[in-house]
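Problem: given the chain below (72 residues), write out its structure.
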Amino acid sequence: MEQNDPFAIGRVLDAGATGVIVPLVDDVECAERAVAATRYPPRGRRSYGPMRSQLRVGRLPGTRTRPWCAWR
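Solution.
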């Protein structure tokens, strides 16, 4: 991750990552914001988009349906 951005964190997780490393987390508030971006409501703020992941990557993360640069 380049920064503590909920959209970017969700995008990486939707693409199949099992975790993320968020740089420059200096306080509890920043850490809580990063964790909330990885969890679905009511415990977090991550959006639910099961079809978006399948459209970008395929049903399984290791089986992309398009070249990497096509969905970037």
